[in-house]
Design brief:
Length: 322
């Protein structure tokens, strides 16, 4: 069974629009669509809480899925994502140190420091895996998990010694319950980063084919590699600063898209973004309804639903198989 990009993207867009409306309708506070334009409490609730939260979910899901796709292309491995190469943990450690040493620093400065830390962690990881033999590619995600755990352990130790464990917990487990108007706008920069990734999608695909192919086709591998890594670092730090870490989006969604649409990045990137937004919307809705009026963090729900989908696709025959 094959999937045409346009029809598949339209289907994903329709699904995301449906989930978007459902997300706006779900919540503890009373809300009525009939009073939306009456400048009543429903109007204020929509503008201050419901709409910012839903937009934050869409931006987070789409951008983290794109970041995961970029990492998998650049490192030529389908089993990694930003939280498995130390990027998320590096950004989290940097935010913790900034909160301890420079608590009054501007949010943009904290985000910049987190992005630099995420980039440094990814570069260190790439240096580590260069020592692995080409036949041991399955060791790459294992090394990444261990590497990320070491950074996270350092962050937990510092937080424990400074009584900052509660704040660290907010960054470790992403949640959208605290998103309000004025607290999510930085996430619009992730949309800009995703557009930049789409702009260089063909070059990223060529770099993912190897050094020899890049040289033969006249692509500046170093420039494209750095561009991809900077995009991933910025997306990771922006999401970490705003809503915290939501793992596995960048692992599950790109694998689903590649199984259904192939490995052409320019063709699959819109589908990756739409599927990422839709899946995170779905998980957030489930997390809000399953123990209503209480919430289960979206990272927990996504870990369950995403894992089931990922295992199903691994066991299912690829539509692109010969």
């Amino acid at each position: 069974m094959s999937y045409r990009p346009l029809s598949f993207n339209l289907l994903n867009l329709a699904l995301m629009a449906l989930l978007f409306v459902i997300s706006l309708s779900v919540g503890v506070a009373e809300f009525r669509w009939a009073q939306l334009f009456d400048f009543s409490d429903s109007t204020q609730l929509m503008l201050i809480s419901r709409l910012p939260r839903t937009l934050a979910i869409v931006l987070t899901g789409a951008s983290m899925a794109v970041a995961g796709m970029i990492m998998q292309i650049l490192l030529k491995n389908r089993f990694i994502e930003p939280s498995m190469v130390g990027a998320s943990q590096g950004a989290m450690l940097a935010l913790l140190l900034m909160a301890l040493l420079f608590p009054a620093a501007a949010l943009m400065l904290k985000m910049t420091v987190a992005a630099v830390a995420a980039l440094a962690a990814m570069l260190l990881f790439m240096l580590m895996i260069r020592r692995l033999p080409p036949t041991q590619q399955m060791m790459v995600p294992l090394v990444g998990i261990i590497f990320g755990s070491v950074i996270e352990s350092a962050a937990v130790f510092i937080a424990y010694e400074t009584e900052m464990l509660q704040m660290l917990g907010v960054w470790q487990l992403g949640d959208f319950s605290g998103v309000l108007q004025g607290r999510y706008e930085l996430l619009w920069l992730t949309a800009l980063m995703a557009l930049c990734a789409y702009w260089i999608a063909d070059q990223l695909t060529i770099v993912g084919l190897g050094d020899t192919v890049s040289v033969n086709l006249g692509v500046n591998r170093t420039a494209v590699l750095w561009s991809g890594l900077v995009i991933v670092a910025l997306i990771t730090s922006l999401v970490m600063v705003t809503v915290g870490n939501i793992p596995f989006i960048g692992l599950v969604v790109p694998n689903i898209a590649s199984r259904l649409m192939g490995d052409k990045l320019r063709q699959s990137l819109p589908a990756v973004a739409l599927m990422g937004a839709s899946l995170v919307l779905l998980c957030d809705i489930v997390g809000r309804l399953i123990r209503f009026p209480f919430e289960i963090p979206v990272a927990t729900v996504f870990g369950v639903i995403g894992t089931v989908l990922f295992l199903y696709l691994l066991l299912r025959k690829s539509p692109h198989a010969a």
